[in-house]
Amino acid sequence: MDPMTLIRMLGDGLFDAFSMFWETLWALFLGFALSGAIQAFVSRARMQRALGDHRPATLAKATVWGMVSSSCSYAASALAKTLFRRGADFTTSLVFMIASTNLVIELGLVLWLLLGWQFALAELVGGAIMIALLGLVGPRVLGGRMADEARVHLDRFESASAGGGGHEHHHDHGDAAHDEVPLRRRLRSREGWADAAGYMISDLTMIRKELVIGFVVAGFITVLVPDAVWQSLFATGHGFWSSLENVIVGPFLAIISFVCSVGNVPLAATLWHGGASFGGVVAFVFADLIALPLLVIYRRYFGTRVTLRILVVFWATMSAAGLAVEYLFKLVRIPEPAPIHTMTGHGPSWDHTTWLNLAALVLFAVMYWLYRTARSTGKYAKDPMCGMQVEIANAPARRVRDGEAFYFCSDRCARQFDERTPRMTMSHDPSGTHRDPVCGMTVSPETAVGSVEHEGETYYFCSTGCRTAFGLKPEAFLAPQ
C-alpha cells in the first residue's frame, strides 16, 4: 500500500469517526443533562436501606435505582461494592451495577441514532431479561458461601487499603439532609441545578477518553478492516447455531477491546455493519462490565474464585439475553435495522441533526455556566483523578492531604491519587491539634479514639482502624515527603 493511499484511508477513518460523533452529539448532551438532573435530585439513601435481599421486588428497586444512577463501568463497580459492604445482597448489588451502566438514558439515545430504534428497545428488553436471569442464577452461583467469601475478601481489601493510607471515612447522614428538602424546592433552586450541571460536566469529563477512543477506533475499523474479517468471526447461514455463536463471541470481543459505557456503541455499530447478528451486537453492548480492567478490579474486591464466577455468570446471562431478545423480536415481527443505515459517513449538513446539535450546544453552554458560576448545595465533591462528581456522604474512598479532604468515585482513582500524592508526615501543628498519620484527619487528644507512642512521639487516631494500621507498620505512614 502506497503512503498516499494509507493517508487517504486514515483520513476517511477520522471523517467517519467525526460523522458518527456529529450524528449523536445532541443525544449525548441531552442524555447526560437528564442523567445529571436525576442524579442530583434523586436521593440514594433508600438504596442503602432496602437492598438486603434478592426478592423480585428488591431486584426491581435495584434496577430502577441503577438506571437513575448513571455511571461509567469503573464507578458502577465501586457503587456496587459500596452497597454490598453496607449490607446489600450480593446479587442485588450486581443488578444495580448492570442497570447503572447498561440501562441509562444516554446509552439508549446513542444506540437509537447509530444502530436504530430496534437496538434501543433491545437494550431495555434485553436488560430486563438479563437481570431476571441474574436474579435466578445469581443466588445459586454467587450466594451463600460465595457471598460470604466475597465479603471476607472485601473486608481484607478495605483493611489493606487502610494499611496503605486508604482508610475510608463514611458519613451516612448526608442524604438525610437531602431528603428533608422537598423535591419541588430543590427543583426550583439554582443550587440544585448547579449540582445537576456538575454531574453532567463530570460525567462527560469522566468518559471523554472512552468516547474519543470509541468513535476513532470505530471509524478506523470501518475503513481498514474488510468485511471478510467480521464474517470470519461471526458465523452466518446456520440458523440458531450461528446466532448462538454470535452471542458468545460478542462478549469476548468486549473483553479484549474494552471501551467504557457509551463509548462501545460506535464499535457495536461497526460490528453490525460487518455482519454480526442482532443478538451478538446486543450481547457485545452489555458486556462492557466484564472487560479485563474490570475483572482485575473484581478480583481485588472479591477474590479470584468469586471473580471467575462473576465472569461466567455475566457472560452467560449477557449471551442468553442477546439470544433471547433476537428471537423474541423475530417472534413479534420487529424488523432488524439495515446495517447500511448504521454508518453515517456524510458529515454535517443543514438538516434536523444540525439544528438539534446547535440546541444541544446551547444547553451545554447554559449548564456549563451554572457549573462554573452557581453555588452548589455542598453535598458533592469532584474526584481529582477522573473528574466524576461524587456524593460526599457516599464516596467510595476518601483521602486527606494537608488538611484538605479529597473524595473518589472508586478505589482505583484513590490508588492513583496515592501514587501521585505524598502522604501526610506531620502528626501535629502549632494549634495543638493532631493529624491522624494514617488518613490525615485532624483530631485532638480529647476526642481521639486512641494513641500510639513511636520513637518518642505520640500519634493520635480518629478510629481503631487507623490506630491498628499504624501499629502494624508505622514506617509506612511516616515516610518523608
Automatic annotation (TrEMBL):
Disordered: annotated segments: 160-181
This protein's UniProt keywords: Cell membrane, Membrane, Transmembrane, Transmembrane helix
Any one cellular-component term (Gene Ontology): plasma membrane
UniProt KW Disulfide bond keyword: no
Domain of life: Bacteria
InterPro entries recorded: DUF318 (IPR005524), Ferritin-like_SF (IPR009078), RNR-like (IPR012348), TRASH_dom (IPR011017), UPF0718_permease (IPR053166), YHS_dom (IPR007029)
Basic and acidic residues: compositionally biased ranges: 166-181
Main location: membrane
Family designation: Belongs to the UPF0718 family.
The protein's name: YHS domain-containing protein
